[in-house]
Design a protein that fits this description.
- Pfam families: DUF7745.
- This is DUF7745 domain-containing protein.
- InterPro entries: DUF7745.
- This protein is mostly helical and about 210 residues long.
- It folds into two domains: about 90 residues, no CATH class; about 80 residues, no CATH class.
- It is about 55% helix and about 5% strand.
- It has a three-stranded antiparallel sheet with strand order 1-2-3.
- The longest helix is centred in the middle third of the chain and has 18 residues.
- It is elongated, with a radius of gyration of 19 Å.
- The two termini are about 15 Å apart.
Length: about 210
């Protein structure tokens, strides 16, 4: 059970990318410092000091970017750094609290119109497959997106608006605006799953 490419595109409101131009991970550790300097407008020395190696992954701590996000004189740079942090910390959180080199490459390719959806879908498959294989673990990816996706299929049971996948509907926006019960327990979801009938589920987003 994972989203399709079309469903991820709908969840993320991706409608202005070149769908034939797919992003494929090609880490370039040697250019990380240059990319970091260009994106932050900081010095080479600053970048060299902040770059770390965690679990064989070249990355930078989120705390090192936080000040730039809050105080950079260029508003566009602030927005870019904040967006970079979201991709690094939420969608591809391989090293907790850090943003890795491949995320910088991914972010640059996004600005060139590359389609991120297949990569995000592949990361979802990889993470869920790992958890299933070892019988434990933590999902590495955007759990909120998966949550909205689940609601899109069980909307008849949960009475949510997330079954509407169209260019005029933003699922994440609806998710944020909806008033949720203060506590949705694990037992609640166990009950939902145990009592599902075929007619309760829409397996493909319209």
């Amino acid at each position: 059970m994972t989203p399709t490419i079309e469903e991820y595109a709908a969840l993320l409101c991706i409608d202005n990318v070149q769908f034939g131009k797919i992003y494929v991970k090609k880490p370039k550790p040697l250019t990380f410092r240059k990319k970091l300097v260009r994106l932050t407008d900081m010095t080479d020395a600053w970048a060299e000091e902040k770059i770390k190696k965690k679990n064989e992954t070249v990355c930078i701590p989120w705390s090192s970017l936080r000040e730039s996000v809050l105080s950079h004189s260029d508003i566009l740079k602030r927005v870019n750094l904040f967006a970079l942090a979201i991709y690094g910390l939420v969608i591809f959180p391989r090293v907790l609290g850090h943003i890795e080199v491949v995320v910088f490459d991914f972010f640059e390719r996004l600005k060139q119109g590359a389609n991120p959806v297949p990569t995000i879908l592949a990361e979802t498959f990889r993470s869920l497959s790992t958890c299933r294989r070892v019988g434990k673990g933590r999902f590495i990816g955007c759990a909120q997106l998966l949550n909205v996706w689940i609601f899109s299929h069980f909307w008849k049971v949960e009475r949510t608006p997330f079954h509407m996948f169209s260019k005029t509907f933003a699922p994440l926006e609806a998710y944020l605006k909806k008033e949720w019960p203060r506590e949705v327990t694990e037992q609640h979801w166990v009950s939902v799953f145990q009592n599902l009938r075929a007619e309760d589920i829409t397996w493909r987003a319209p």
